[in-house]
Design brief:
6 helices, alpha+beta, 8 strands, 263 residues, 3 domains
């Protein structure tokens, strides 16, 4: 295989470390000469223990895939855990020199990154056990998916056309040609008109669906009114809701990975 870039991307690996923690390893690529290792915690933990765990995991993953990597830890809100006591050295760079592992604490962007070839041959050798794809393969899958979606849309349009145009036309023609059917159709139309008129005038109670729709609209208008009165409070509430959603998603991911590993 040529050393020319082919858009090689490898599958990210996630593994459980218990019901309240998991790790995510993102392999290096042709455009990123190092791997990324994230330890995700969904509960409070001692920061000194976190530092030890980062080193332990980094050593294990480098042994599995001998590619320079940067490891760090985050909480359930996706904020990086500062294990350096405010010094900002929360990232661990791991690489090897002449077969010896080097551990360097610092911050991503300030490291002097070791040289590592990201040509396809080197990456495929390092990550031979991981599923991967090239840019050409991803484009081919995208085209296939687009063709399938267009075929689905055409089928849906055909069904809608039959329901909205062909079926009503057939029914109308049947009513026109058959006196009894025509009379029944007229009665049905008159009944619908009568019911609608009585509901507008208030003589008939609204259906549950109509009541639910009115309540939904009222709540939306009420919510919009108060958001306009207090846009700052709305922004804070929105951020809190997004944060809560992110934390719950992270906890759910940890539980799912733990269940899969236990099963």
């Amino acid at each position: 295989m040529s050393d020319e870039k082919i858009g090689l991307v490898f599958q990210t690996v996630k593994e459980s470390r218990g019901p309240h923690m998991f790790v995510q390893y993102t392999p290096a690529s042709e455009n990123m000469p190092f791997a990324s290792l994230v330890l995700v915690y969904t509960e409070e933990v001692d920061l000194q223990e976190v530092a030890k765990k980062i080193e332990e995991e980094a050593r294990m993953w480098f042994g599995r895939y001998p590619v320079p990597l940067v490891a760090y830890a985050v909480g359930e809100d996706d904020d990086a855990l500062d294990i350096s006591g405010g010094e900002g050295k929360r990232d661990l760079l791991v690489f090897s020199i002449d077969g010896e592992l080097v551990f360097e604490w610092g911050r991503l962007g300030e490291f002097k990154m070791p040289l590592f070839s990201t040509d396809p041959q080197t990456l495929l050798s390092a990550y031979r056990s991981l599923p991967h794809s090239t840019l050409a393969q991803r484009k081919a899958r995208t085209r296939t998916k687009a063709l399938e979606q267009r075929a689905g849309i055409r089928l849906l349009l055909g069904i809608l056309f039959v329901r909205r145009a062909v079926v009503p036309a057939v029914i109308a023609l049947a009513f026109y040609l058959h006196p009894v059917l025509g009379f029944l159709g007229l009665l049905g139309a008159l009944a619908d008109a009568a019911v609608g008129g009585l509901r507008v005038l208030g003589y008939l109670p609204k259906s549950k669906r109509e009541l639910a729709e009115e309540e939904r609209r009222r709540r939306m208008e009420h919510h919009d009114y108060h958001c306009r009165l207090n846009p700052t409070g709305f922004a804070v509430l929105k951020a809190e809701n997004l944060g809560a959603s992110l934390r719950e998603d992270t906890r759910e991911e940890a539980r799912r990975l733990h269940d899969e590993a236990s099963g």
